[in-house]
Specification:
TIM Barrel; Urease, subunit C, domain 1; 14 helices; binds zinc ion; 446 residues; alpha/beta; four-stranded mixed sheet; single chain
């Protein structure tokens, strides 16, 4: 038993009092919250948390790890979504197993150091030679000691058929479905403490056919896995849906059997009132990606209205070519400020922290992570507000977002410390940066 004792500040993502910390069992779960002024009910070893702010491990619900190879790439630095994609697809088509492995390691390390313990990734590029892309991701997640929902993405609608991606990046429905089934059978874990989960993720309305959407939904139902896609990200996408399918985005979603609680959507910006009500009634979830939405000038998601309608909302950093960071604590700050622009300054800091933790857990369909309570996994992010930027701050929890914390000092996943003193034990960061940067230059050079 380990007592995380007397934290400087603590955010439980619920109404429980953990003013004097919490107790982690040897099996990696939280067994007790210790209220202010109280002591644990059992003998424990002690971790002195008096200089730390403790949060549930942050949860990222939308990302494309491979895009760390094309960050801040000049030709698309100032472009909106469609031309941004059209310029990047041919570069991404040159992805290799080794460059993906390095990209995933970089994204995971960056996320972990920002306090993130569980990440979703949406990988939809399977050019020749990349058949093992998800397998590569699984082994990187396991060796980093994090949790992940890895989605088997897909693209079937090439340029020749009226879609956006080039022919070389799309696959046949047969190949996609066979690989999806293989991955679910091989890797998908269920129940509390799951490390790797698999979900199915046709990429977006403008890159897949309705058939693969419907067939993916049927397979997800059969194996009880989740469904993920991009939806209502831009007005261009809405116009595409109207002209290609004669439907608005939510009607399109319903027409392919996706309007349900198994589905979470990347972005979810351009919904009208009636569509928000339908999404809420269905329990369809949204991954809010504020930085990407500002970077590409896509629009502002109506997060408070979505939540009021019953839509679970979490946060995503989105791909690293449209953020271009993979930093979850900074993403919570961005979400707070973007939503304040829409709804006013009364949007509380705790609400943004809630999206990054409990909200994101709900988005991924998990009830074992995202808050501090007895029985939950011991996934913790500890921040040490001792840098210049925190000097003079008063509320330690609020200071994380308001003063711009960007790095956790300690991170625990399932009871094991995965970040110690602001570093990942055993990871050669300088070596990783050197190899990853070289792979990124090579990918762009062609
Ligand atoms: Zn995305």
């Amino acid at each position: 038993m380990l007592w995380i004792k007397n934290p400087l500040g603590i955010f439980t993502a619920n109404d429980l009092d953990a003013g004097n910390g919490l107790v982690v069992s040897d099996d990696g779960t939280i067994v007790e919250l210790v209220p202010s002024g109280a002591e644990p009910s059992m003998p424990c070893s002690v971790f002195d948390a008096s200089s730390y702010v403790v949060l549930p491990g942050l949860i990222n619900t939308h990302h494309h790890f491979y895009q760390t190879l094309t960050r801040a790439w000049g030709p698309v630095a100032n472009a909106p979504l469609f031309p941004w994609l059209q310029n990047l697809y041919p570069v991404w088509a040159r992805l290799t197993p080794r460059s993906l492995e390095l990209a995933v390691q970089v994204a995971l390390a960056e996320l972990l150091l920002s306090g993130c313990t569980t990440a979703a990734d949406h990988h939809y590029l399977f050019p020749d030679g990349m058949e093992d892309a998800i397998d590569i991701e699984v082994s990187a997640v396991r060796s980093m000691g994090m949790r992940a929902t890895l989605t088997r993405g897909s693209m079937t609608l090439g340029e020749d058929d009226g879609g956006l991606p080039p022919r070389t990046t799309v696959q046949s429905p047969e190949a996609i479905l066979a690989d999806s089934e293989r991955l679910i059978r091989k890797y998908h874990e269920t129940g509390p403490g799951a490390v790797v989960q698999i979900a199915l993720a046709p990429c977006s309305p403008f890159s897949v056919t309705k058939e693969i959407m419907a067939e993916s939904a049927a397979m997800a139902e059969r194996f009880d896995v989740r469904l993920h896609t991009h939806l209502a990200e831009t007005i261009d996408e809405e116009d595409f849906c109207q002209s290609m399918f004669g439907l608005r985005t939510v009607d399109y979603l319903e027409s392919v059997g996706w309007l349900g609680s198994r589905t979470w959507l990347g972005h979810g910006i351009h919904f009208n009132d009636e569509e928000i009500a339908r999404l809420g009634a269905a329990g369809t979830a949204v991954a809010h990606c504020p930085t990407s939405n500002m970077r590409l000038a896509s629009g502002t998601a109506r997060v408070l209205e979505l939540e009021a309608a019953g839509v679970p909302v979490g946060l995503g950093v989105d791909g690293s070519a449209s953020n271009d960071a993979s930093n979850m604590i900074l993403e919570a700050r961005q979400a707070l400020y973007l939503q304040r622009l829409r709804y006013g300054a009364s949007v509380p800091v705790s609400r943004a922290l809630g999206w990054a933790t409990r909200g994101s857990a709900a988005v991924l369909g998990r009830s074992d992570i995202g808050q501090l309570a007895p029985g939950m996994q011991a996934d913790l992010a500890l921040f040490k507000p001792d840098e210049l930027r925190f000097s003079g701050s008063h509320d330690p929890v609020a200071a994380l977002l308001l003063c711009g914390a960007d790095r956790a000092d300690r991170v625990m996943v399932g009871g094991s410390w995965r970040v110690v003193d602001g570093a990942i034990p055993g990871l050669d960061v300088a070596g990783l940066i050197a190899e990853h940067s070289a792979a990124a230059r090579k990918l762009v050079a062609g």
